[in-house]
Amino acid sequence: MEKVRAEIRVSGIVQGVGFRPFIYRIAVNMGLKGMVQNLKDATVRIVVEGPESSIKSFLDAMIKEKPPLARITKVDVSYSEPKNDFNDFKIMMSSEQGSVAGSVIPADVAICDDCIRELLDPNDRRFGYFFITCTNCGPRFTAILDTPYDRHNTSMRDFPMCKSCSSEYEDPLNRRFHAQTIACPECGPIVYLTTNDGELIECKDPIKEAARLIDEGYIVAVKGNGGFHVATATTISEPIIRLRKVKHRRQKPFAIMAKDLESIKTFAVVSDQEEELLKSPAHPIVLLRKSEDYYLSEEIAPGLHNIGVMLPYTGLHFLLLLNSKEPAYVMTSANPSGEPIVIQNQEAYIRIGKDVDYMLLHNREIVNRCDDSVVRIVDGSTSFIRRSRGYAPEPIVLPHEYGKNVFALGGELNVAACILMGDRAFLTQHIGDVECVETYEFLKSAIHHLARLIRAQPELIVHDLHPGFQTTRLAKELAEKIGVPTLAVQHHHAHVVSVMAEYGLEEAIGIACDGFGYGSDGLAWGGEILLCDGNGYHRLGHLENHPMPGGDLAAKYPARMAAGILFGSNICEEWLFSNTDKLPRGREEAEILLKQLKSGRNIKTSSAGRVLDSVATILGVCHERTYEGEPAMKLESKAIGGSDILGLKPEIKGRVLNTKHMVESIAEITMKGLDPKKVRDLAFSAQNYLALGLAEFASEIAISEGVRNVVFTGGVAYNEQITATIRRIVENNGLRFYTNTKVPPGDGGLSLGQAVIAAKLSG
Ligand code: ZN
Ligand code: ZN
Ligand code: FE
């Protein structure tokens, strides 16, 4: 058999995922000699010598049996004469090199099946140990202080390895070979239980004791990998009601963590696609439809047809649920309202101590706070509501390469910043609503930390067109400090380009629908049809403008917005005065509101979100927005299973899709005495009207402009009925339809669009 030498270069996500020990194992198995090494450009270099057929099977095995977290995008092989310069197969260490720009920082990985098996095995030395991890699982990003990703650069530096752990760590054939978070009961972090003011509770098994307390109705803070959660039982309402009071969260749904998949199936409907997501390495929260015989407390996700569920993703969570009699626990981020998630033990007593009864803590530092990710399957594709733990800060690899390093800061709500380098977009973890000092500081430090980890130097800093956003202020501050220019990008333009960037589209007709984005004319946009290409955008269509009496108040109390839309029609006053109970100050407010409308001095909005909110209040579904998107989300839940009894044909005049007519028709029907059985169908009809109108309008524009691609984005794209309907019509018109699948269609994905627009315009 002829011997050859092969030089192999593997690209993709191949570092920090156990790729080298895997290569070592298959090479040794096949009797090959040579070496494997991580290169600074995030690729892996392999040199092997041996019979040609063995090298062929080696390459096959590399693709077929690769470690669960590895992703291979390219393999280059070149063959040559053997040099016989290897005696065996070697792993070269990454710590021998520094980091370079664009290195991949691995995201956290949920506990793997092998670790779960050991956790449950009484003969294993990690039996019942809460911080069990291996090369295939455990915290990564949340534990990294600096690169390269080695133990001394992680929060594990505080825990010197014991003899047994270090021999596993050194053994290339062991699953924990170079697992930086390796630990055991002898040398690793410890878990303990305290009261809410720090008094230690003596007990044999703090996790078991915590589970007992939660089952009994107590509220317990639980320190995880990326931050604290607050946990309660799910089959009783009392602790959840108490939690809502202390957190000032009247209606906002809480996520839950279920014991296992079987438990989930007792209260929710799980499709194959959703099951795959639940069990994927990120273990995100997945929005699932409540089942017919849903039996958990209605307090968890009031008024909604779905519920956010995740599986335990650390040993600690797994043991906690294992010891519980409950099918699931409420597991909501522990943070004072509007502030970032709590990560430090002392901080926890101060910031959330009074909100909880007990605390289940450990003594390992959380380096980077990282909230749970939230995903929903919308019309068959993955839609991120929040892209954070398990995904951030791994880069999104784009089909195009961009010439400039750009930092983009997003908008104001659900912010995640983006660093664009070449064909890689690095998005930060979820930062939240940048309205208070705490989130502002969090955003600042998250960008600094990410930029340092990936050695990024900005050449341009991008922000939203809104002059008043905190992120606009921060962009200017950063740009001045480093001496680089800034660029302002229109909100919906950025939304549309976030989709185009994912697919590498050069031009598209974009439908961007959300609550609010600052328009180039100073008005509040939110139902836009834009033609986007390399040069910018043209606003070719939008929803009808309506007065928004009281500005933000009209978003908080949708009845104000409904009056704004109805204003000018002959039922406006009658509707308003027979619905004064929907205004906090009743009749008096209605009178002032009417004067306000008559004055004509109101900001105008083309927002799709506000139209949906108005229908929600008119149909009696929701009268106050206590969290972002609430009225529209409840309207969607209400519409499930409905049909279009209104049957209105969309009215498009010039560049405007009429919405008044639809809202008016629904208001008229309700004023004649609303049959509660019709609420569902009317909710469905309203959504159908918007979807039909937008899809037909956009298709018409696409065809007349000669553009083949139509994209749909913005927060309204989470609405399954609207998205599915738009897709159907667009595709029936012979056009291609796209939505976001890698970044959120909501404002969490805005920074990707901003960055790509800036790189294109300035490159
Ligand atoms: Zn593992
Ligand atoms: Zn140990
Ligand atoms: Fe938006």
Could you explain how this protein is built, in words?
It is a single chain. The protein is of the alpha/beta class. The protein contains 23 helices and 29 strands. It is globular and about 90 Å long. The chain starts with a strand and ends with a helix. Bound molecules: zinc ion (ZN) (2 copies) and fe (iii) ion (FE). Fe (iii) ion (FE) is lined by residues 491, 495, 514, 517, 714-715, 747. One zinc ion binds next to helix 3.
Quick tags:
single chain, 763 residues, alpha/beta, Alpha-Beta Plaits, DHBP synthase, Nucleotidyltransferase, domain 5, eleven-stranded mixed sheet, seven-stranded mixed sheet, 23 helices, 29 strands, 33% helix, binds zinc ion, binds fe (iii) ion
Brief digest:
This protein is α/β, with parallel strands linked by helices and 763 residues long.
Q: What assembly state would you assign to the polypeptide chains in this entry?
A: single chain
**CATH H level of the largest domain: which superfamily?**
ATPase, nucleotide binding domain
The major β-sheet equals: 11 strands, mixed
Compute the CA-based radius of gyration: 27 Å
User: Which stretches are low in confidence, meaning pLDDT under 50 for 5 or more residues running?
Assistant: none
Q: Bound compounds, please?
A: zinc ion, fe (iii) ion
| Approximate helicity band | 25-40%
Domain module tally = 4
Number of strands: 29
CATH class value of the largest domain = Alpha Beta
Shape: globular
In whole angstroms, the N-to-C terminal distance is 53 Å
How big a fraction of the residues is strand?
15-25%
Number of helices: 23
What fold name goes in the CATH topology slot of the largest domain? Answer: Nucleotidyltransferase, domain 5
